Inverse folding.
């Protein structure tokens, strides 16, 4: 179960960073101009939202019912 939970966390953070990268490119700027702090918190926010869905479908039960 621990491996599955770590997998969900890793995948959600990677998807969060990927979506952040695409959003930053779509608005016509670079990650350097967007800033490392904003990039980190945007990736974390999107990653948490993705983790909620992955938790539900993977059945890891990290979140209480």
């Amino acid at each position: 179960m621990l491996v599955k939970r770590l997998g969900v966390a890793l995948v959600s953070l990677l998807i969060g960073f990927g979506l952040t990268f695409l959003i930053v490119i779509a608005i016509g700027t670079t990650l350097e101009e967007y800033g490392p702090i904003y990039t980190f918190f945007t990736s974390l926010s999107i990653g948490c939202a993705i983790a909620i869905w992955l938790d539900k479908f993977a059945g890891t039960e990290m979140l209480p019912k």
Summary: The longest helix spans residues 2-26. Residues 2-58 form one domain. The chain is about 80% helix and 0% strand. The mean pLDDT is 94.
